[in-house]
Amino acid sequence: MNFSNMTTMIFDLDGTLFQTEKLAIPAFRRTYERLHAKGIWNTYPTNEQITSVFGLTTADLWKALLPDANDAERAIADEILLEEELAHLEKGYGELYPQVPETLSYLKSRGIRLYIASNGGERYVKGVAQAMKIDSFFTRIYSAGEYKTARKEELVAKLLAYDGSSLAVMVGDRRSDVKAGKANGLYVIGCDFGFARENELEGADEIIHDFTQLRKLVCV
């Protein structure tokens, strides 16, 4: 791809911009404590089980972590988790990957329109962007929770319909990001510093191991 002609970059949030585990693991722990107190669930997930669901839609996340719960119980769990995530953000939990704000600032200075496309809930995604002070870099923030999409391919399609660009790049750390980019005819940059498992980024056009590598690509 000729990056000099690129107009738009679309970023996943968790595992791409944001070190999610530093917020999610303590928030999930507290959520499960509250669920246990309500008599809804008695077992606790491992850290590996928690990180394995990053990037999933809310519905798929709870199917994985509360497999035997009913819809009402999963709705309660989701409400509690959001409360805990926002509360932990206020307490200072969570961290961006190194040089994310500086790199986003550089990309925006090159005239590139920046977006977030996340499978998370609207209040969570926008809450993280605001708490981490990166929301101002983005033209718009898209979340599955706000746009009611079941797959990231649909969410990215909605974003592209708004943006109108045919020269866009998808940046993410999960198979869903690669699939979403490819389904929409985009060049895909896989991030191998987040939660990607072996072969998860198969099909990406480029793989980076540090967020700042995006600057070098754009300079080509």
TrEMBL record:
**Which Gene Ontology molecular-function terms are recorded?**
phosphoglycolate phosphatase activity
Q: Which GO terms describe its biological process?
A: DNA repair
Which Pfam families does this UniProt record tie to the protein?
HAD_2 (PF13419)
The residues the entry assigns to the signal sequence are none
One GO cellular component this record assigns the protein to is:
cytosol
**Coiled-coil annotated spans:** none
Q: Which PANTHER family match?
A: PHOSPHOGLYCOLATE PHOSPHATASE (PTHR43434:SF1)
Q: Please give the name of this protein.
A: MTA/SAH nucleosidase
